[in-house]
């Protein structure tokens, strides 16, 4: 079950992201928490049928697509189908295209992560993408988009990229 997270319950969720993501892919705790004031930002705890917190998802709800910023399952609950099941529920609930960012496939772990998303209906889009810095002093991070229900055209990619950069990262292209 997805549980909407508020500022009161945020501290239970953030450690899941800290464990799952490299520091360059995660905002500082207080900056991440402040996003809960933004109307398009939604944060969810992912619980099993007994109410045990097993993961978390941060997403941005745009008019014509959903952008999943973070999706993480606690290590103890990985490889049992739980993450895939929850991802399918999220995609069915979204009712419109879903976009997420993945690392450029360079090693076994990044290839496995991409494979996980492909097995659950996402398509890898090999357009060069640079994620604006999540923290002060960091450089742009080379990533790629994965999308569902299909690959996207270059024009759609550019539109999604501009919207994500402007609204999520407060970054305007030159």
Q: How is this structure best summarized?
A:
The protein has helices at residues 10-20, 29-34, 82-94, 108-119, 154-168; strands at 2-4, 41-47, 53-61, 66-73, 98-103, 123-131, 141-148. The chain is α+β, with helices and mostly antiparallel strands.
Per DSSP E runs of 2 or more residues, the count of β-strands stands at 7
Sketch the major β-sheet: 7 strands, mixed
Described by the principal axes of the CA atoms, the overall outline is globular
CATH superfamily: Gcn5-related N-acetyltransferase (GNAT)
Radius of gyration: 15 Å
Give the SSE string: EHHEEEHEHEEH
**How many domains, in number, for the residues?**
1
**So, CATH architecture?**
3-Layer(aba) Sandwich
Proportion in helices: 25-40%
Termini separation (Å)? 42 Å
- Unreliable stretches (pLDDT < 50, length at least 5) are none
Overall CATH class: Alpha Beta
**Class based on secondary structure composition and strand pairing:** alpha+beta
Q: Please state the average pLDDT score.
A: 94
């Amino acid at each position: 079950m997805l549980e909407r997270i508020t500022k009161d319950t945020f501290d239970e969720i953030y450690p899941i992201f800290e464990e799952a993501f490299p520091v360059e892919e995660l905002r500082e705790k207080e900056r991440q928490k402040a996003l809960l004031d933004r109307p398009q930002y939604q944060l969810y705890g992912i619980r099993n049928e007994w109410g045990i917190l097993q993961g978390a998802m941060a997403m941005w709800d745009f008019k014509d697509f959903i952008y999943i910023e973070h999706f993480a399952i606690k290590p103890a609950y990985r490889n049992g189908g739980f993450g895939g099941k929850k991802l399918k529920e999220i995609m069915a609930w979204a009712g419109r295209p879903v976009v997420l960012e993945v690392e450029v496939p360079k090693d076994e772990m990044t290839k496995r992560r991409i494979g996980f998303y492909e097995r659950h209906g996402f398509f890898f889009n090999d357009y060069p993408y640079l994620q604006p810095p999540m923290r002060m002093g960091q450089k742009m991070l080379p990533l790629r988009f994965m999308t569902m229900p299909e690959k996207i055209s270059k024009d759609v990619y550019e539109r999604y990229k501009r919207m994500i950069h402007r609204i999520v990262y407060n970054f305007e292209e030159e």
